Amino acid sequence: MRRALAGLAILLALGAAPPAVAAPPSDSWLEGYAAAVLERELSVSAASLRVRGGVLTVSADDVAAADRERALALLKSIRGVSRVEITPSTASRGEITRGAAPPAVAVSASAPAPAPAEPAPETASTPPRVLADWQTGLLPGGTLFKPLVADPRWPHFAAAYQSFLRDPSLRDVAAVSFGETFALIRERFWQSWWEFGIQAGVFAIFDLDAFSKDLINADYFVAIPFGYRNGDLSALLRVFHQSSHLGDEFLLRTKAQRVNLSYEGIDAKVSYEFRDWLRLYAGFGYIFDTDPPDLRPWSIQYGAEVASPWPGRSKGWRPIAAIDVQHREENHWSSDLSLRTGIEIDGVLASRKMQILFEYFLGRSPNGQFFKNKIESIGVGAHFHF
Fold first, then answer.
1. CA–CA dist 159, 8 (Å, integer)
2. pLDDT (0 to 100) of residue 168
3. What are phi and psi of 160, to 5 degrees?
């Protein structure tokens, strides 16, 4: 057990550690990041924002005078931005054609005082801003389909305490998961983004009331996800494998009969986001090559996520709540209800999000061979997302 805990600690340390050497960010990455900063901190959608050779330009039309000083401070603090320039507004350009052209306001990333700079060249063919926060190419970062907050089996890093209310053999349980979703390649076609990647996770529960904190069950999950996004609409198609394994100490102590639960499957989900505060999703799944071979294959899933507009993303945190409901043909379409609520904190460990959530679950157990057991549990956990 001590060796297992030590291994988990090493994995956590490796996952949290920043890379030793970071390559300079590309202009496209800086453009997307800067656009996201303005939208999050100032609720500004800057269609004119461009980055060329580390020089960031944005039109005065897109940044109100009252927000300009804060916008400059935010943009020049981005690593890799060498200079920030606010170009004249449309009205000013009309005056420029009739008289002398005033220089653009420029701010060096290394010096706090404004300095004159040549205005950024503008052409009539400058394209409208495309959601630049979605990068393309190999290893673009992020995912088009956002994690499902209340899904008990969404791969991510988490640790939670759960109190089982109905289970005859378990009461105090530690639930941990290790995993993530990584996009391997992303491209943009027909005004939409498409990607595929890899998703993997391990979900384990431990009996905290046992003398040696026995490992009860571990589920191993791996998938190839195909993602899609067009504006606020996103979708995910996965081909996956899952297998379950009981802990040795638990088997020796309880003499439980082991079921070699294993299967492959395919599932699809569609999600729609209403601004920045409500998300709805739904989907279905089908499993095959099952062990035991008589498992019924179909399942459906749907849910909702709500993020409070108060106190605003500029504070770095906000309350959230989520509900996830699943029905499986194997369990005669009974409902598995998962509720989670708490706070979401941005910018923890660089670009990661941390969620501190109170959890409630009622339904058939998601833990491996116990899938026919009806359980009810409450708990609290910490969840990390890239």
1. 11
2. 80
3. -145, 150
Q: Which amino acid, residue 41?
A: E
How far apart CA 353 and CA 339 sit, in angstroms, is 19
Q: Which residues contact 260 (CB under 8 A, 6 or more apart)?
A: 243, 291, 292
Helix, strand, coil percent values for the chain (each to nearest 5): 20, 50, 35
Q: What are phi and psi of 144, to 5 degrees?
A: -70, -35
- Cα distances (angstroms) measured from residue 127 to each of 167, 179, 229, 279, 365: 60, 38, 20, 30, 51
What are the residues whose beta carbons fall under 8 Å from the beta carbon of 181, sequence distance 6 or more? 143, 147, 155, 197, 198, 199, 225
What the block records as the tokens of 71 is: 């916008």
Q: Provide the mean pLDDT of the chain.
A: 81
pLDDT given at position 348: 64
Name the strand (E) or helix (H) holding 79.
Answer: none
Strand partners, 362: 337, 376
φ, ψ dihedrals at 118, nearest 5°: -65, 140
What is residue 133's predicted lDDT score, i.e. its pLDDT? 53
Nearest to 30 by CA among 68, 69, 57: 57
Strands 374-385 and 233-246, sheet pairing: unpaired
Q: Angle, nearest 10°, between helix axes 65-76 and 27-42?
A: 140
Secondary structure class of 386 (helix, strand, coil): coil
Identity of residue 128: P
Asked whether 159 and 381 are in contact (CB, 8 A), the reply is: yes
CB 332 within 8 A of CB 133: no
Q: Residue 116 corresponds to which tokens in the numbers above?
A: 């004159």
Q: What is the pLDDT of residues 287-316, one digit of tens each?
A: 999 999 999 999 999 999 999 988 866 677
**DSSP per position, 159-181:** EEEEEESS-SS--EEEEEEEEEE
H or E segment and range at residue 7:
helix 2-16
Instruction: Encode pLDDT of 86-110 as tens digits.
Output: 887 655 444 434 444 444 444 444 4
| Side chain identity at residue 249, one-letter code | E
> Which domains, from first to last, does the chain contain?
27-117 (no CATH), 135-385 (2.40.230.10)
